[in-house]
Specification:
With 178 residues, the chain is an alpha+beta fold. It contains 5 helices and 4 strands.
Length: 178
């Protein structure tokens, strides 16, 4: 009779142990350098295609100032990356040939500003050895394409051509970044 009373306890113990070991995961395998060792630009990551703006700050004991400086530099780097990307995208698709140079620059600027507002500071890291603080500003390529689709200053045909070419231009930039 005692055998039957301990049987449910044994079953629960076996289930608990199997859940414990079944849910345990080994260390993640990382096949690329940490983001703070990369340069700003277009990157192909395990999470998908993205643009990185990486900012670095050092030399201040005020951590709030250090963090704000790194974030501002990351956003500035992202703006430069997006400016180059959008210019290459316009050139690759010959978008809006009827516009003057000034109108084209305004359209590029508006698209960059709108894409920049969709970017996020997704990570920060402090180098324990040197005290440098790094900030990562990230924008996924899919999100950029969504922003492009909503851009009213660009003609629908030009938007479609740019969206169709977006991945190819990103791949070219990613090859140069690595």
């Amino acid at each position: 009779m005692q055998y039957h009373q301990s049987f449910p306890i044994q079953i629960c113990l076996v289930i608990a142990v199997s859940l414990l070991f079944g849910c345990a995961a080994g260390p993640l395998e990382v096949d690329e350098a940490p983001w703070y060792l990369m340069s700003s630009g277009a990157h192909e990551t395990p999470r998908g295609r993205a643009f990185y703006g990486i900012g670095k700050a050092e030399g201040s004991r005020n951590t709030t100032l250090l963090r704000a400086t790194a974030v501002n530099r990351a956003r500035k780097a992202m703006a430069e990356v997006l400016d180059g990307y959008v210019a290459e995208l316009f050139q690759a698709t010959k978008a809006m040939p009827a516009l003057t140079m000034e109108e084209g620059e305004q359209a590029i600027g508006a698209l960059v500003r709108n894409a920049l507002t969709s970017s996020v500071i997704s990570d920060q890291w402090t180098d324990p050895e040197h005290g440098r603080l790094y900030a990562l500003c990230r924008l996924d390529l899919d999100r950029f394409i969504q922003v492009l689709a909503s851009q009213a200053t660009i003609e629908p045909a030009a938007r479609a051509a740019m969206a169709a070419e977006a991945e190819n231009v990103h791949a070219m930039m990613a090859a140069r970044s690595n």
